[in-house]
Amino acid sequence: MAYNIDLATRMRKALSKHVDFEEKKMFGKLAFMVRDKLCLSVGMNKMMCRVDPALHDELIQAPGCKTVIMGGKAYPGYIYVAVENVQSAKSLDYYIGLALQFNARIT
Questions:
Q1: pLDDT score recorded for residue 26
Q2: Listed residue (88, 6, 95) closest to 43, CA to CA
Q3: What is the DSSP letter of 89?
Q4: Which domains are delineated in the chain?
Q5: pTM for the full model?
Q6: Which of 42, 43, 52, 86 has the fewest CB atoms within 10 Å, i.e. the most exposed one?
Q7: What is the pLDDT of residues 46-102, one digit of tens each?
Q8: Where are the beta strands (DSSP E) in the chain?
Q9: Angle at 6 between CA 33 and CA 13, to 5 degrees
Q10: Which residues make Cβ contacts (< 8 Å) with residue 86, sequence separation at least 6?
Q11: From what superkingdom does this record's organism come (predicted)?
Q12: What is the four-CA torsion angle of 50, 55, 61, 65, rounded to 10 degrees?
C-alpha cells in the first residue's frame, strides 16, 4: 500500500481534534472512517474527500481538485485534492471540515 505518510500524519492529527475515527486500508490507500462511513483517504499525491454532492461542481473548480473516477465512473460527492493544495493547516482543515460536515449528515 502506497500513501503519503506526511499527509496521513497531518490528516490524522487534524481529525483527532474533532471526532473519533478508524483507519482502514482500502483501494491501495489509507482510508479514514468516521461513524463507520468513508470520510477521507490519502494516496501518494492526493487526498480524497467525501463531500456534499450539492457542493461538488463548485469544489472541483478549485486548483488541484477533481472528481473521483473509478472504473470509468464519476462519483459526484467524492473529490480528489492534490497534496500541493493542502500544504497549509488552513487548507487541510478546510477540506477535512467539508468531509466531516457531510459525514455528520449521512450517519
A1: 87
A2: 6
A3: H
A4: 5-106 (3.90.1150.30)
A5: 0.93
A6: 52
A7: 999 999 999 999 999 999 999 999 999 999 999 999 999 999 999 999 999 999 999
A8: 22-26, 29-34, 37-42, 46-50, 65-70, 73-82
A9: 50
A10: 7, 10, 47, 92, 95
A11: Bacteria
A12: -10
